[in-house]
Design a protein that fits this description.
By secondary structure, the protein is mostly helical. The chain has 24 helices and two strands. The chain has a two-stranded antiparallel sheet. It is rod-shaped.
Length: 608
């Protein structure tokens, strides 16, 4: 056997099957490819050229009655016997069909057969000229295209929009597109496809048809034959008219094709499905983005809440610790206060038990006042050491001696402070520039007298730090209690800041000796009328009330504490503890003190 007779070895593709989603996707792709190949083969068989062995010529009925003068309106494919295949016929098949007709219908052949035939030289009026004209027109590509463009058997109808059945869509529109693809300048025309076509294939199909390039032209229908023109001007006019008519028909053809593509696009169920899928995908992306944003916001909120909770927990722990520290400090302070109070009570109880170590009431009251002052000035450690010294004293005299030593130390300290304050106050008064500078600095340019400073000190003590609108309340109280000049809150605050404790004590003790002498004068001398221009004023004692010195005020307060409400003959005993004062004066002074306290409370309430 020769090598030419050997069969070719075909390469067989090895197909490996996969399981799962990958295998299913590969199988679907393979099935689509096979389906497409089968469809293209069937399409080629249905629309492509007819094989020569299957070509069947159909005789034109009554071909002898063809009028050569009407050749332009005749069906040239039917004249040549190609009525069934028409534009599918090849050039060779056209030539073969013509040869067969020549052998049968040529005038010379007919004359030899004894049939009726025209005389030589007059063949143009014979029907054979129609066969000859059809052949000449179809054997040349350009003239054949011109005739195919106006093929009377071509169906130019456009199907309407279909929205109900997808099966009808493929059955109706597929043959129409296959029929119109003959006008394409591009050979590989994409086909409509099926329901399993991908979105890329569908988009490619409609993009091709929306940009369809057609070779169809209408020169065959030219009404004016330029060869009959008498001159160039008439020929140009004919050409212009023919171009205009061709352009109009071409425009109508483009509109027809555009309508076909639009109706197909509107009827295509795949477009609707792809749009729905794209919409679902966009909604899914939007939902996923919204979920991501929501989760991010929730995470941020959770982190913020965690930070806030952590901070609150830390603040709570700090608050608890601070509260515990405050409670502990308060307890410690209370313990110290109780211990101090207990030590004071112990010292006072011991002195009271010993009847204040004196028998004379005046001396007893003076010693009582000194001991109370000592208790208020000593701290817990000093009080404890003094009580231990008293407990360890072998006799009452030794205990009294220990108390007196403390009293002497306290008095010495007070004398030193008074001397220093007095020296500093005298130096400030004698300085010519200090008064002017002090006035400008201490009271906003207003002089502060000794009485004004006393009223300021009382007001500051009456309204301690923490009082609402403190300095407004202080200024109102000062102005309502006999200040020499109207003071505003700024003046009071400025003067209070510049007044030191030592200066206050010095100002308060400027006239201490005079007040001490007044308090220790005999009753008749203090109440005696003072001379005025050589005459004795008889109204002084009756009309002018005697002012209370600080020493008398302390004695009164101590007596009120010693003889509380409910004590038998209380006011008589208070009067005995305040020498030089009558029961009526004590009652009047007590009422004034109560009125001042009520006034201070009312002023504090009004400032709120």
């Amino acid at each position: 056997m020769s090598s030419k007779m050997k069969k070719k070895k075909l390469t067989v593709a090895l197909v490996e099957s996969f399981e799962g989603v990958v295998g299913q996707a590969i199988e679907e792709y393979r099935q689509r490819k096979l389906k497409k190949i089968r469809f293209l083969e069937e399409r080629k068989r249905r629309l492509g050229p007819i094989p020569d062995d299957k070509l069947v010529l159909v005789d034109y009925p009554d071909i002898q009655h063809l009028d050569p003068r009407e050749w332009k309106d005749q069906d040239h494919y039917a004249v040549l016997g190609l009525v069934n295949i028409r534009q599918r016929a090849t050039t060779n098949q056209v030539k073969s069909a013509y040869r067969k007709l020549v052998l049968k219908h040529h005038p010379d052949k007919r004359r030899r057969k004894g049939e009726a035939a025209p005389v030589e030289g007059s063949d143009t009026d014979d029907y054979f000229s129609c066969i000859q004209k059809a052949f000449e027109l179809l054997k040349i590509i350009d003239t054949r295209r011109a005739y195919d463009s106006i093929d009377p058997k071509f169906d130019e109808s456009v199907p309407p929009v279909i929205k109900n059945s997808k099966d009808n869509f493929y059955k109706i529109f597929t043959p129409v597109f296959d029929l119109n693809q003959r006008w394409s300048l591009v050979e590989n025309v994409p086909y409509l496809g099926g329901d399993d076509s991908t979105i890329e294939e569908v988009n490619q199909f409609y993009e091709f048809w929306y940009d369809f390039q057609s070779w169809r032209e209408y020169s065959y229908l030219d009404e004016e034959n330029k060869e009959r023109a008498e001159d160039a001007m008439e020929r140009r006019w004919m050409e212009k008219k023919n171009r205009s008519e061709r352009a109009t028909k071409k425009k109508e053809e483009n509109a027809r094709l555009r309508s076909l593509v639009d109706n197909a696009y509107a009827s295509d169920p795949r477009i609707k499905r792809f749009k729905e899928e794209a919409k679902r995908k966009r909604e899914a992306i939007k939902t996923a983005r919204a979920d991501a944003i929501r989760q991010e916001q929730e995470q941020i909120k959770a982190d913020e809440e965690a930070i806030k909770a952590k901070k609150e927990e830390e603040d709570r722990v700090k608050a608890v610790e601070m509260k515990l520290q405050q409670v502990e400090a308060k307890k410690k302070k209370e313990r110290e206060k109780k211990a101090t109070k207990k030590a004071r009570q112990k010292l006072l109880s011991y002195c009271k038990e010993k009847e204040w170590f004196y028998t004379d009431p005046q001396e007893k009251l003076t010693f009582m006042d000194n001991v109370n002052h000592l208790c208020s000035s000593l701290d817990l450690l000093s009080l404890t050491s003094l009580n231990e010294a008293i407990d360890g004293a072998p006799s009452t005299d030794n205990a009294q001696q220990s108390i007196c030593v403390k009293l002497d130390e306290m008095k010495e300290q007070m004398v030193k402070e008074r001397e220093q304050n007095y020296i500093s106050s005298i130096g400030g008064k004698n300085s010519p520039s200090s008064s002017a500078a002090g006035g400008d600095k201490n009271g906003g340019g207003k002089d502060w007298t000794f009485e004004d400073i006393q009223i300021l000190v009382k007001a500051v003590n009456l309204f301690p730090a923490g009082t609402v609108n403190r300095w407004k309340v202080v200024s109102n109280w000062i102005n309502s209690h006999g200040s020499s000049v109207k003071r505003n809150p700024k003046d009071c605050l400025s003067r209070a800041k510049n007044l030191k404790e030592s200066e206050l004590k010095a100002r308060a003790n400027d006239r201490a000796f005079e007040r001490f002498q007044e308090s220790h004068q005999p009753e008749q001398v203090k109440n005696a009328a003072k001379p005025k221009e050589g005459e004795i004023s008889v109204r002084y004692e009756a009309d002018m009330p005697k002012s209370w010195s600080p020493d008398e005020q302390r004695k009164l307060e101590q007596a009120l504490k010693t003889f509380p409400t409910g004590t038998k003959e209380r006011w008589v005993r208070v009067a005995e503890a305040c020498p030089g004062r009558t029961k009526a004066e004590i009652l009047q002074r007590t009422r004034e003190l109560i009125a001042r306290i009520k006034e201070r409370k009312a002023a504090a309430a009004a400032s709120k």
